Amino acid sequence: MKPGETGLPIESSETQITLYTALYQQLVEARVELEGERARLDKLRETIEQARGELEVAEAKLAQSMERRQVELLMEGVSEGYLLAHTNYTNAERAQALDFSYLTAVGNPVPPETPIKPRTMLNTAIAGVLGVFVGVGLALFLEYFESYKTRQSSMGLTR
Questions:
Q1: Is there a contact between 153 and 147 (Cβ–Cβ < 8 Å)?
Q2: For residue 95, how many C-alpha atoms fall within 13 Å in the half-sphere facing its CB?
Q3: What are the tens digits of pLDDT across the range 51-74?
Q4: How far apart are CA 76 and CA 69, in angstroms?
Q5: What is the mean pLDDT of the chain?
Q6: 103 by DSSP, 3-state: which?
């Protein structure tokens, strides 16, 4: 083969021009489409940057909102503490304002000369008397109940 030959059949110059024109037209269309896609890409990048800015603003607002809520909770706690302290203070002032002039001390308190302790003999005697009364009462009740059952059975009223 000679240099410059491709081994393909030689076409007419008119066919080559038509082919060249078609290929050039496709190239132009591809470049236009490429420019359109680049413009679209630039617009998407701008949109992404704008969205990032809006996201940063939203995050800042969220952080500020959370901070505000924490401050509000702290203020509620402090306010409740203040109200409790104020109520206690008001009650203390009222207690001081009460007039206790109608109360008078008869005399100074005197400590006992001998220590006070339980009287075991008296307590034991009282317990014994109560025990006897309870025992007699129980015996009388049992006697009454026994006679009641006997009367019922003699009349034939029991099962």
A1: no
A2: 6
A3: 999 999 999 999 999 999 999 999
A4: 10
A5: 89
A6: coil
Domain limits of the chain?
12-99, 121-159
Given the structure tokens 């009349």, which residue do they identify?
155
C-alpha 83/C-alpha 90 separation (Å) is 10
30 to 18, 34, 45, 90, 155: CA distances (angstroms):
18, 6, 22, 87, 126
Q: What is the dihedral of CA 39, 41, 43, 46, to 10 degrees?
A: -140
Percentage of residues in the chain with pLDDT exceeding 70?
91
Query: Does pTM top 0.85 for this prediction?
Result: no
How distant, in Å, are the alpha carbons of 73, 88, 90, 92, 101 from that of 85? 18, 5, 9, 10, 29
Residue 29, classed as helix, strand or coil, is helix
